[in-house]
Amino acid sequence: MIKTKKIILIILSFPITLVLYILLFAGNIKYSEEIVINANIDTVSDLFDNPNNMKEYMDGIVSFTILSGNISEVGTKAEIIAAYIEEDVVKRKIVMIEEIITNNLPDEKKVTYSTDGIYNIVTNRMVKVSEDQTRFISEQEFEFKGYMRIMGFFMPSFFQQQSRIYLENFKDFVESK
Q1: Does residue 10 lie within any of the structural domains?
Q2: Residue 18 located in a structural domain
Q3: What DSSP string runs through 154-173?
Q4: What are 35's strand-pairing partners?
Q5: Per-residue CA distances from 175 to 17, 43, 71 (Å)
């Protein structure tokens, strides 16, 4: 009887302990993705540094609106609206605020994105491989708040897969120019 009560107590306390652990100690993801693009570094840099091109390689981007500053300048803030559509119906709309922290492409461009419960720091670098090849490196750091910590804890590969898709789409976009 006493062993049964202990087992039940352990089973019931596990979900509470897991949620407390996630809320108190988890919540950050850091990774890097890279791809080689068959184009010269100036072309890659110019196409990437133009936010109007985002719609070409980032599925779901509905709008990019400058809130303050000028395109590509440090300190510029912009609002990005993305919609996730299934069967011609908008399932979810995300509003992000982008801020340019540094921009000395092709060496480095650091940008932050913030939305409900997620703060993302992205550092992009481009390295000349040859006259017609460029290595594009994207370093991502996610900080999660509130309920988004749970998503970050259980689905970290989702964020990395999405970053990979964006890199591959960007490569296709550049190489089709």
Answers
A1: no
A2: no
A3: H-HHHHHHHHHHHHHHHHHH
A4: 136
A5: 49, 10, 24
The amino acid present at 141, given as its one-letter code, is: E
Domain enclosing residue 123, as ranges: 28-175
**pLDDT digits over 106-130, tens only?**
999 999 999 988 899 999 999 999 9
Strand partners, 141: 30, 121
Number of domains composing the chain: 1
Q: Are 109 and 18 in contact (CB under 8 A)?
A: no
Q: pTM score > 0.90 for this model? A: no
Residue 34 inside a domain? The answer is yes
CB 113 within 8 A of CB 97: yes
Residues 98 and 111: beta-carbon distance below 8 Å: yes
- The CATH number given to whatever domain includes residue 99 is 3.30.530.20
Q: What does the longest C-alpha to C-alpha distance in the chain come to?
A: 76
